[in-house]
Amino acid sequence: MIGLFLSAAALLSARALYLQWVETEVLQHRGARLHLRVVELPAHRGMITDRRGEPLAISTPIDTASAAPAELLQAGTRLPEVARVLDIGTERLLAILRSRQDQKFVFLKRHLLPSVSERLSALAVPGVVLGREYHRYYPASESTAHLIGFTDIDDIGQEGLERAFDDALRGIPGRKRVIKDNRRRVVENIEVIASGRPGRDLVLSIDKRVQHVAYRELKAAVHRHRARAGSVVVLDAGTGEVLAAVNRPSYNPNDRRQIKGEYYRNRAFTDVFEPGSTLKPFAIAAALEAGACQPSTVIDTRPGTLRVGRHTIRDIHDYGLLDVSGVIEKSSNVGTAKIALSMGAEVLWRALVRLRFGRSPDSGFPGEAQGSLPHYRNWREIDHATMAFGYGLSVSAVQLASAYTALANGGVMMPAGIVRLDTPPAGTRVISRTVADQMRRMLEGVVTIGTGTSAQVPGYRVAGKTGTVRKTRPGGGYGKDRYLALFAGMIPASRPRLVTVVVIDEPRTGVYFGGEVAAPVFSSIMTEAVRLLDVTPDDLRPGAPVPAAGVRPVRLDSRGTL
Q: What pLDDT is attached to residue 557?
């Protein structure tokens, strides 16, 4: 017996030495095939922040459940446990595994909640593996949804800036060689084959605080007037940077299960409309530049109508004799048409071309609209007249706001941009300083005594223009009960810091004028925005309304200027 045991031990020892020294490479190769794997190291997607570094889109690590179908099918009695934790139904889980049992890997459920991940890990079911991915989260939720957009489950940009800057944000995944156990869990990291590169961060021009205020006030206005939709754009007058761009209706990018695709559209950039009376300042500016009139020129608007060919242009009231400033303050269509017809169609057209109407604003947002501006050679006389008060061309809210920066900057127009600038752009002179300053004073009259008194902001001089536009019908012509209420303005008027455009689409409470619907939204937003941005008040005359708390006042000279 002793000899038998010794012989067996000798044979086992010989076999062990043989496998250890002779068959080493063969066995290591077989072991590597069974347990050595190359896995991908997901790259961390770049963060999107506002101009102050506040996060607007961040990626957080999260677990995903996958399985080896053949192995999990062998643990058939435990399938109900897995299905219950993942909340996918036993029959559905069985169907997934059977349809892919010839594959080595299949996703069961991605982006698990931490509690679900812990419960699944505790089950320790053979063939079930937890892997690490990244989930995109949007802290500002619906207020920035249209601008930021969202990614799909693979963290690839699908809408908005997530899509436009996807290549830069996504980064490059890495790869590493690991050893996995029989449950396909990583038990040892062998080596990094290729180092990944995280995505680059994107810093926007948006100020999250102003964005939130603009969205809150727009949402309230759309609800109050039972409007179809609405948009607000706030630009830095000196740089053209977009400080806020909001729309209603909106959606929550963190939970898109019940959201309609039509809600994804960023109306401020992609939707165009006829600007109506908000275009009048540019037509008047063109006439002043051409010498067709002066601010003191008297225009006879009686009897409140003007016949142009077979068409009749009307004012709401018969305003009688008005100087050019009065035409702007009263928003007289008749007066504006007479001024426009006093200069050549080419003069007006070239003025609008310089303001980039009919061309893309090149803000960097994907799918932005360029609007339309027909060539003056195709204008009839009525087109020449109506073009001056905003009918016959189309613009987006961003385009209109960008054009108003020319009036705010002494005639220098700033291109709209959504990425934060380290140095201000040079801008393009499109109007002389003299005419721009004259127009700004006229627009200030609109807010103090004209159609835009509801846009006033305590402690600040405001310049702006109201607009009430009839919407076109699908079959042609204009509807009788479908309107856009508009307001475009700047604050403080003495030295504009902010340019804002408000668009309320189809208010349905019976009130639809821009001065009644859109101007109050401008006032509400700017009242808080000037406080948040520490904009110095410029209207501290005795008896003037007191500015909002926290705004730093300064002394004014005898003329009421800074």
A: 40
